[in-house]
Amino acid sequence: MKRLPLATQLLALLGVALSIAFIGALAVTVLAQRLNDQNARDALVTNRIEELVLTLDALAPENQADFMRDASNRVTKIEIASDPAVLMTSADDRSRLLAGRIQEALGQSDVRVSVLSRAEPNLPEDPRNFGLNREMVLVSLKLVNDRWLNFSAREPRSWYTKTQLQYLLAFYACSLLIVLGAVWVFLRKTISPIEELAIAAQKSAKGDRSARVSEAGPFEFQQAAKAFNTMQERISQFDAERTRTMAAVGHDLRTPLTSLRIRAEMIDGDLREPMIETLDEVAAMADGLVSYARTGQSENLMQVISLKDLLAKFCEELDVPFHATADPTVTAGPVSFSRAVRNLVENALAYAGQAKVVLSVQSDKAIIAVEDDGPGIEPALLATIFDPFVRGEASRSRETGGTGLGLSIARDIIVAHGGELSVINKPDRGLTALIKVPSLSSKQ
Question: What proportion of the chain, given as a percentage, has pLDDT over 90?
Fold first, then answer.
């Protein structure tokens, strides 16, 4: 499974953490509210019973029945009977605490309380009743004349209504969006330098020594950007010095090699031809050094050209099959670009005896494939095949290849054009060299 980007992981982690915190806070709030509501209702029941007892004590016995009837309502029922409605106080904590509270308020020892919580199946279809249960508070209190005051109250247990829940969820969603939005903006500003550094490092790995990163952002990223830019500058200077050295060596070798070849031609006998072949090989290496050092230095690489016309022309010169599925235009130096592709084609001809060039377009990339049916390249050599003087086969015979600079020159030219060059072995037999360069437009 492909790993998610760092920003996505952090946002997901923050979202989960905020959700857990919200659910925890909501649970604590609900529990606290329920406890407060219970205390408030118990205090209300205690006060109500205390008022009833005091009023009954003040009324004549013949008026007590009328008072009880008038004091009762839809949710509260009060009566005086010979037997208690509650035989004994329930074992739950709330019933025992409420009984103790009433006993303390009235100084009455025989108080029996039972609190029942149950779902009410016959509530009317009303959004305000969402999530409500009913509580039944039953109290039996012994009066002075051996009769019992039976009190029952049916009260809704406090809970969040549907409207309140919608409000809380909307508040949570808005808060989450605001927090995640602010974090996203911060992460983009923080991660953008990392992405820029990664892109520049990829370009550098492909040989682009001009890749630089802006020295902006947090202090740590500024330090990393400065270090990368300094590294690129030093590598660029080293490459420049190396190419100058190679060019100087190649150039300085030409004169003594020419002189040696002239003298070798004057020698008679069996040593003449081997000496001339060896000198020709060294001369070819010297020419390759000069060519490698001068790659792309003397040409405008920003000319708009048609790849189809360019490739068709030199494929015809080399008598190589050419097939194009599109006609992309690119910015390139026609001479150096042709040389890069020519090196690949000549490489295929040298090792396989034949080659084929295919031009296509994928997304915004022009793709040139140089294919052959030769022996391919040993997998161990694929990682170093673009290094100077590395060849696709182990021998140094002039009959099976050149000096080992052709692919290095081609790679440097393609990288200078903002593209990339890779070689892959075919599944059955042969090799494919792939050039990918940015395309301006394409005609099918």
Answer: 8
